[in-house]
Every structure is written in C-alpha cells, then in structure tokens.
Amino acid sequence: MGSKKRLTLKQMEKIGKKKERKEKGSRTSGSTTEKRALRIVPPDPRNKKVVDQLKKMRVLTPYTVATRFDLRLSAARDLLEELEKQGAIEFVSGSKNLKIYKPSD
User: Fold this and answer.
1) Using CA atoms, how far apart are residues 28 and 49, in angstroms rounded to an integer?
2) If you average pLDDT over every residue of the chain, what do you get?
3) What is the DSSP letter of 42?
4) How large is the angle between the packed helices 62-69 and 48-56, nearest 10 degrees?
5) Which residues of 27-44 are buried (b: 16+ CB within 10 A; e: fewer)?
6) What angle do CA 30, 31, 32 make, to 5 degrees?
7) Which one-letter DSSP state was computed for residue 30?
8) At what angle do helices 73-86 and 62-69 cross, to 10 degrees?
9) If DSSP codes are grouped into helix, strand and coil, which group holds residue 3?
10) What is the CATH number of domain 48-103?
C-alpha cells in the first residue's frame, strides 16, 4: 500500500504556527464583525406602531419584515399570517415557499 507521505518544511512550519496560536488562545480571523442576536419573539401584531410601519411598505414578504424588525424568517411568516387573519394586510400572490402581501386600504 505505501506509507504516509512526508510533510515539506513549509507544511511543518504552518502546523507549528497553528499550534502556537492555539496555545495562546487568540484567533486571528479576518472578520471582526459582531453577531447580533436575532429576536425570536415577533412584535405584537395588535400594536398600532407595528401596523403603521407595515402599512408604509409597498410589498410585504417574510424577508422584508424579518429585516425590518430583526426577526427570524419563521417568526416573520407567523406575524404576517396573524396580520392577515386580523385584516390588516391582504394576500396578493405566492407559492409554497414565498407569500406576498400588501397593506389593506
């Protein structure tokens, strides 16, 4: 079958540097952005301010609502369904994956 291939000097240096960084405990990642914690609980659909903000938007999709209120897509979908039941928004079109709503007049 054969034996394990020997590492080159360059490869051994890289492995040594990685071990040193692990021992120090510091990571040198390229991005220094902080992750924001997304809210899981959607805003109250009966809240007047929430409904007014949504009525200003021309088209309502789960993605646009999720980005506006910092929600997860599933929570935004649930919020839109609840608002549709209340009559605050109307279903326009959609498929299994995407539903498009508009504010009711």
Assistant:
1) 43
2) 85
3) P
4) 120
5) eeeeeeeeeeeeeeebbe
6) 125
7) S
8) 110
9) coil
10) 1.10.10.10
Residue closest to 45 by CA, chosen among 77, 86, 73: 86
Single-letter residue type at 55 = K
| 95, containing H or E segment | none
Q: Which of 92, 91, 88 is nearest to 45 (CA)?
A: 88
48-90 per-position pLDDT tens digit: 888 888 889 899 999 999 999 888 898 999 999 999 999 889 9
CA-based torsion, 94, 54, 52, 56: positive or negative:
negative
Beta-carbon contacts of 26 under 8 Å, excluding residues fewer than 6 positions away, are none
Q: Which two tokens stand for residue 99?
A: 């539903």
